[in-house]
Design goal:
The protein is α+β, with helices and mostly antiparallel strands and 346 residues long. Helices cover 14% and strands 32% of the residues.
């Protein structure tokens, strides 16, 4: 693990980007801020409709791993949402970040792998990393930066989002490698959402232009999805001699206070290789005491350890997922938020 960044205290200690124009001597020199070792990410609050009005900036929603890029004179670090150092897993992103020509910066964004139509593909990203628990490095991953939290010795979290975006766009204006700008999209939110859904995208993100960068789900950032996608724990599977891999469906649960509640099962979306891996892994996690009391034939129960990302269309009246489809397993390092029953089902 790399050491903490050194405090940036004196002008001669700070590595600064090459200025595009001479500094106006009438402007004061601002004191330098110590570079944070990590900033807890701002998260988007799920909404069913896009906000209306010019106060909201709109972007495409990506389907990958939330990461931050820390650029320092000593090198680059790529950190996951949970704070794990994945620089070695994303070498192309790290190499591209080193070429940005900036002394110090913290970029917030999403690491993705794009399909042949330019859409982010979560399954392809997982495969490029060697699957859950894999040790491969992804040369295909691209980092779409959508915020700038620290720049040239100054922390920007108390600066308005519109100003941060302007600085970020200027920084990435000539970047055409594995670090790219998440472009703001002009237009009406509902129209853009319909267009995103028609093109098979995840949805859109709306951010209040005057908001500061606040960690957690504050409502400053909103996500409006074409298809719901949430993380659930796998608590077992239904055996099937007909299905390739021996799994007919996965049994899923969400958090319910301090315990778990069944939200049904998912039987589509996983390939044969996925099914073989899931069965082997779940068989090692077998338990006679299910996390949630479930009745049925040919059921194998497992400890609630694996976290699966699931697409679904909504909820049934009895609290189960409707039209569920398996997307893949979440890494522990990705700090996936397991769905809470008392959270919104909008």
């Amino acid at each position: 693990m790399r050491s903490r960044s050194k405090p940036l205290l004196r002008d001669d200690q700070v590595a600064k980007s090459r200025p595009k124009r001479p500094r106006d001597p009438a402007q004061p020199n601002l004191p330098f801020d110590e570079m944070p070792s990590r900033i807890e990410p701002a998260l988007a609050l799920l909404k069913s409709k896009a906000p209306v009005g010019p106060d909201w900036a709109l972007e495409v929603k990506f389907d990958g791993y939330r990461v931050s890029g820390h650029i320092e004179p000593s090198g680059v670090r790529i950190l996951t949402r949970g704070g794990h150092d994945w620089t070695h897993r994303f070498p192309a992103i790290a190499a591209s970040a080193r070429k940005l020509g900036v002394g110090t910066a913290i970029l917030d964004g999403e690491a993705v792998v794009l399909d042949n139509k330019g859409r982010s593909d979560f399954g392809a990203l997982q495969r490029s990393l060697g699957g859950r628990g894999g040790k491969q490095a992804s040369e295909e991953a691209v980092f779409f930066a959508f915020d700038l939290l620290y720049f040239d010795g100054h922390i920007l979290t108390n600066t308005e989002m519109s100003v941060r975006r302007h600085l970020l766009a200027d920084l990435l204006a000539r970047s055409n490698g594995a670090v790219q700008l998440s472009e703001e999209v002009e237009g009406d939110g509902e129209t853009l959402l319909q267009a995103a859904c028609a093109h098979g995208l995840e949805g859109i993100i709306a951010k209040h232009r005057e908001s500061k960068y606040r960690s957690g789900r504050t409502g400053d950032w909103l996500k409006i999805k074409c298809v719901r996608s949430e993380s659930f724990v796998v608590i077992g599977y239904e055996q099937s001699s007909a299905a390739r891999g021996g799994i007919g469906s996965l049994l899923l649960a969400a958090r319910d206070g301090e315990g778990w509640k069944s939200v049904g099962s998912v039987g589509t979306g996983f390939k044969e290789a996925d099914a073989f891996y899931l069965k082997q892994t779940l068989d090692r996690l077998k338990t006679k005491r299910p996390a949630v009391p479930i009745r049925g034939k040919n059921l194998v129960f497992a400890q609630p350890t694996l976290i699966a990302e699931i697409n679904f269309r909504g909820w049934t009246d009895d609290g189960n997922l409707r039209h569920a489809s398996y997307k893949g397993l979440r890494e522990v390092q990705d700090n996936a938020a397991i769905f809470q029953i008392d959270s919104q089902k909008a």
